Amino acid sequence: MEEMRIDYSKYRLETAKKCLSASKTSFATGEMDFSLNRSYYAIFNALRAVTILDRFDSKKHKGVISYFNRYYVGTGIFPSNTSKLVESAFNLRSSADYEDFYLASRRDAQQQIDNAEGIINMIEPYLAKRWAEIIEEEKLPMSAIFTRTSTRQFEPRPVESKYIIKILRAAMAAPSACNQQPWEFWVTDDKEIIARLSQVSPYAGPVNNAPVVIVPCYRTEGLPVAQMAEIDMAICTENILLEAEELGLGAVMIGIAPLPERMEAVGEILHLPANFKAFTIIPVGWPVNKRPQEDRYEPAKIHTI
Ligand SMILES: Cc1cc2nc3c(=O)[nH]c(=O)nc-3n(C[C@H](O)[C@H](O)[C@H](O)COP(=O)(O)O)c2cc1C
Question: What element of type H or E holds 254?
Answer without folding.
Answer: strand 254-255
